[in-house]
Every structure is written in structure tokens, then in C-alpha cells.
Design goal:
With about 325 residues, this protein is of the alpha+beta class. It contains 8 helices and 13 strands. Keywords: Signal.
């Protein structure tokens, strides 16, 4: 190859690289607005997306809280793996990872007026929509697992894999893989009820881009089915997040609280142990929930949602 031709090729390569770097912000903006493109598309290697920047801001706030004993301490200097939750949600799940280990997750929503909202977050190896949850459904569902599956998300406590096998549709819990008593009609009915709730389409959670944790409390995990207070007692009367916060402050190892919801025409009851809370600098409260006594996968759900869709029991 002649020296003249080599010079032309090098010049063309430099020009192409310069053009790509100039176009990157515009390509990234389009990708952020689409639920069909993964946020981790290769073009994002050139610059950090607004979603990634916001996720790191909130992860940093959580990692700073509580020192080395905090369940979020390991989140420092973690890497992120981001993907859209599903069509029409304008929401993403952000996995917090170190090497190959998943440490936790965040669910982040895009706000119509701009910016983001922290829909929920949690610690543990098996977050929402992990593929392991499909395998937990049982050997009898192996043919279904190979069928087409998609993520569906109504609110923090109602999210699932929608699995289609020909004309048959199944809904399976996004964490446990448990088969839900739902079809498309029942799922759409639950979505309508959520949209008409006190929270509705505005969702819940902090939208403070630079929010910090103002207070937190954690108690040991316990089996939520040790006692069944929803069968023998009335639920606590809580007028709002502030009243709930006062009750949560009284949590101790002995003073236990449970939370439960009913869905799908009262055909499905879910129960969690209440094991603490985080209060953010804008007064948004996230309640810590465990599904068993192991506490390996703890979820933090906005108090507004919990008050709107279920009941607390002591």
C-alpha cells in the first residue's frame, strides 16, 4: 500500500471517529426514550447516559449509609447492568454487580416532566426478573419455560413473567417463579385497580436527583407465617406515610409487623415480614420487606404504594 493511500485511510478513520463522538449524545437520547432498546447498547460506551448517572447517584447515597455494617456497603464501586422492564413501562431494572455476583437492584422510572424516580430497590442475589425464577416454577413447566416470556410490571408488589405457549398464557411471579392465578383479563383488571388507587399513574418514590438517606432502621428477618394476624386481628389504621413512619420506629426484634396484599379477585394473598425502613432527604419512605426468615433478598418499597394496596398487621 502506498504512503499516500495509508494517509487517506488514517484521515478517514479519524473523521469517522470524530463524527461518532459528536453523534453519541443524540443517539443516547433516542435510546433512553425507547423501551425496546437496552440502555447498555454499545454506543453508550462513549459516554455515561443520564439513566446510568442517576442510578450511580442513588447507589452512592445508599452505599454511604450505615458504614461497613450497612446492607448496601458492598455497593461501593459496583458495576451496573441496565435493561428495560417491558413495553410501555418507561422503566428500567438496574442490577448492581461486582464481577459476576449480583448484589442487588434498583427499579427506575422515567418521569413525564423529565428526570427519574426511584421506584424500588433491594439487596440479594436474586432480584426481580432473574431467569432463575422461571426455573423455580418446577419441572412440569419446562416446556413453558422454553416458550416466549416477557416482563410485565404493574407496581412493586405485582410483577411477573408473562409466558405464552401457543394459545396458553401463564403469569409467574418475577422473583419466586410461583404460578399466579391470573390470565390476561385478570392482569389487566389489577392494572386498572392500581391506576385508580391513591398512587395511580404518578407512581411513588423519591425523584430527588441528589437525594440522601436521612434515617434508617433495620431489624432481624423472621418468618412472616409464624403467626397469621390477618385472620384474627384488624389491620393497623394508618392515615399516611408519617403515621406509618411513627409505627415503624417502634419495630424491634420482639415487636414484629407483617404486611399483606390480596389480588386477582382475592384469589392470591402475598405476605411479607416488615423489617425496617429507609427515609430519604425528601421525606420519601421505603419500607423493608422480607419473604422469609433468611433475609437474603430484602426489598425496599415506597410506603405510598404499600398503604394504597394492602394492610399492615402487628
Amino acid at each position: 500500500m502506498s504512503k499516500k493511500n495509508r494517509t487517506r485511510i488514517i484521515a478517514a478513520s479519524i473523521a469517522a471517529s470524530l463524527m461518532l463522538s459528536l453523534m453519541a449524545p443524540y443517539v443516547s437520547a433516542e435510546a433512553d426514550s425507547s423501551d425496546d432498546l437496552p440502555v447498555s447498547a454499545p454506543v453508550y460506551a462513549l459516554s455515561e447516559t443520564p439513566l446510568e448517572s442517576q442510578a450511580k447517584e442513588w447507589i452512592g447515597a445508599l452505599a454511604e449509609e450505615g458504614g461497613k455494617t450497612s446492607p448496601f456497603a458492598a455497593w461501593k464501586n459496583a458495576t451496573l447492568e441496565t435493561s428495560p422492564i417491558g413495553p410501555g413501562t418507561h422503566s428500567w431494572i438496574v442490577l448492581v454487580k461486582k464481577k459476576a455476583e449480583t448484589l442487588g437492584y434498583l427499579v427506575i422510572h422515567a418521569k413525564e416532566e423529565g428526570g427519574f424516580q426511584l421506584g424500588e430497590y433491594g439487596t440479594g442475589e436474586w432480584p426481580l426478573f432473574n431467569e432463575h425464577s422461571l426455573k423455580l416454577s418446577g419441572i412440569q413447566l419446562q416446556p413453558i419455560i422454553k416458550a416466549r416470556s416477557e416482563r410485565v410490571y404493574i407496581h412493586p408488589l405485582l410483577n411477573a413473567w408473562r409466558v405464552t405457549d401457543g394459545a396458553t398464557v401463564h403469569y409467574m411471579d418475577a422473583i419466586t417463579g410461583e404460578m399466579l392465578p391470573a390470565d390476561d383479563d385478570r392482569w389487566d383488571k389489577q392494572r386498572a385497580q392500581a391506576e385508580n388507587s391513591a398512587v395511580g399513574e404518578k407512581r411513588a418514590g423519591t425523584a430527588d436527583a441528589h437525594g440522601k438517606l436521612a434515617a434508617s432502621l433495620a431489624v432481624p428477618s423472621f418468618n412472616p407465617y409464624e403467626t397469621l394476624p390477618w385472620l384474627t386481628r384488624k389491620p393497623l389504621k394508618l392515615d399516611g406515610p408519617d403515621k406509618l413512619a411513627a409505627v415503624l420506629n417502634d419495630l424491634t426484634k420482639e415487636q414484629k409487623m407483617r404486611y399483606t396484599t390480596l389480588s386477582f379477585d382475592n384469589a392470591y394473598r402475598a405476605v411479607w415480614s416488615v423489617v425496617g425502613f429507609n427515609k430519604w432527604s425528601d421525606n420519601q419512605i421505603y419500607v423493608a420487606l422480607d419473604s422469609d426468615e433468611q433475609g437474603a433478598d430484602r426489598r425496599y418499597i415506597p410506603a405510598e404504594w404499600l398503604l394504597a394496596i394492602g394492610d399492615f398487621y402487628k
